[in-house]
Amino acid sequence: MPDKTTAVVHNTAEHRFEIAEDGLLAQADYQPVAGAWIMDHTEVPPEWEGRGIASSLVAAAVAEARREGVKIIPTCTYVAAWLKRHTEAHDMVQDDYRRALGL
Questions:
Q1: Are 72 and 93 in contact (CB under 8 A)?
Q2: What is the pLDDT of residues 65-95, one digit of tens each?
Q3: Exposed/middle/buried for 64, CB within 10 Å: 0-12, 13-18, 19+?
Q4: Class of the 9-101 domain?
Q5: Residues 39, 61: contact at Cβ < 8 Å?
C-alpha cells in the first residue's frame, strides 16, 4: 500500500495527479484555465485513508503549479483546507480565492 512518500504521477492527459497501485487509484483533479488550475476534486480509496495520500497529491500539484507558473483555484474542500494549513503555499492561490479563504 502507498504512503505519503509514494511517488505522485502528473497525468497531464487526464488533468490529475495520481497514485495507482494494486488496481486502486488516488487522484487530485484539476481543470486548466488561463493562468490557473481549478482544483475541483480529490479522492483516495477508503483502504488508503489516513496515510497522507491526499496531502501528497495536493503538495505535488502545488509544486508543479509553481514550476509551471500557474495559480491554484481551490474549489475542492480538501484542497482549500490543505492550502489553509500550508502557509508556504498561500502565494500559489489565485488572488480572489486567497481573500475568500482568508489567507
A1: yes
A2: 999 999 999 999 999 999 999 999 999 998 8
A3: middle
A4: alpha beta
A5: yes
State how far Cα 2 lies from the chain centre.
Answer: 17
Q: Are 27 and 7 in contact (CB under 8 A)?
A: no
Query: 10-24, 44-58, 60-74, 86-100: which range is least confident on average?
Result: 86-100
CA distance 3 to 48: 8
Are 11 and 17 contacting, i.e. CB atoms less than 8 angstroms apart?
A: yes
DSSP string, 46-101: GGGTTSSHHHHHHHHHHHHHHHHT-EEEE-SHHHHHHHHH-GGGGGGB-HHHHHHH
The rounded distance, in Å, linking the Cα atoms of 40 and 16 is 10
